[in-house]
Protein: Cytochrome b-c1 complex subunit 1, mitochondrial
Organism: Hylia prasina
Amino acid sequence: AVLLTLTRKRGAATYAQTLQNIPETQLTTLENGLRVASEESNQPTCTVGLWIEAGSRYEDAKTNGAGFFVEHMAFKGTKKRPGSAFEKEVESLGAHLNGYTSREQTAFYIKALSKDMPKVVELLSDLVQNCALEDSQIEKQRGIILQELKEMDSNLTDVTFDYLHATAYQGTALAHTVEGTTENIKRLTRADLASYIDTHFKAPRMVLAAAGGISHRELVDAAKQHFTGVPFTYKGDSVPALARCRFTGSEIRARDDALPLAHIALAVEGPGWADPDNVVLNVANAIIGRYDRTFGGGKNQSSRLAALAVEHNLCHSFEPFNTSYSDTGLFGFHFVSDPLSIDDMMFCAQREWMRLCTSTTESEVTRAKNYLRSAMVAQLDGTTRVCENIGSHLLHYGRCIPLEEWDARISAVDARMVRDVCSKYIYDKCPAIAAVGPIEQLLDYNRIRSAMYWIRL
């Protein structure tokens, strides 16, 4: 027993030691502009992926959904590996292939054994340079996407957030959904998909990221071998500029009394990715906390809003969010409640916002900072999360920010900073509101707007 205790103590690392022992992210830029970044460790596996600066924000009303369609087509065969040969080759390695499309980025990544890294790089290069776009596969994926769109309509949380973007950024590219409209998916052609790839899949808009038991030098050598054919973005290329998306304080209400629960999202305009205010706003969200009826703790929740939700049965769940884009963001909260609890929950949530602006305490900030540190260290679990951090950081910030720097930024936050930054973004601002379901009790917009400030004597 004594020996086991000594072994456990010897293997434990403090929080500070953990931050100091994180491998440095190595970065190399190839001649064609492709950035190659990696974080080496002693893992037997690795995750290698491509993060591309492309998404629904780069689409117009006619092509909205093209990026999501291309993501579906990417795994369905290349010119070198027609049909299902691409997926079969990935499976033969015992690897896992995945990808996603968001409003500002697209990602394709493979998790495999570390020894197979060169093969994985070759597969990813084939995927983005030689996508077959076979007509039969296009029609098959068209049917699958249309079915997915129907299923997404039943996910009221996703519907609410799509409505929130539609009203907050109305008339701009950020108002588009990632998946596109049913009409667009029905009419997009092979030429549209090929044009999307040719326009956006350029080397300077890509990051080849890797994490796990790999060598950065070998990764760079593999990238030079397989990615030299990815074109550089020349001045004359028709790459769309990232248009400014102006925030609008407005609302969308989709009332349906046949639904059992109401979904409400309220947001103000937040900062873009690189703005240092983001760290303070994340601390503010950690103070608000999150809640679900499945949580334990009852009235003893550390979050004041969660304690009120339990005591007065205000909602089924709530969660704050801070969604950032290149030059703007949405800072707000989303809750699900019974039809007759909407007004009370909205009142308590907005009052919590006002309290953040006026009377945040140091003890709350300390608790919130510890929560953020725990969430930050949790990102170290698994090569996929580390790889995603590398790729997305290089797209968002132009560099990979080490966790030690994030920890220093979190440590610098105090109660006064939270009050000042929350006042800057929340106090007396016009919010955007999206509401779905039995929302008769949701007050008029002007009443909600009037709760964005306090009259203090």
Q: What stands out?
A: The radius of gyration is 24 Å. Residues 270 and 329 are 4 Å apart (CA to CA). The chain has two domains: 24-228, 251-451.
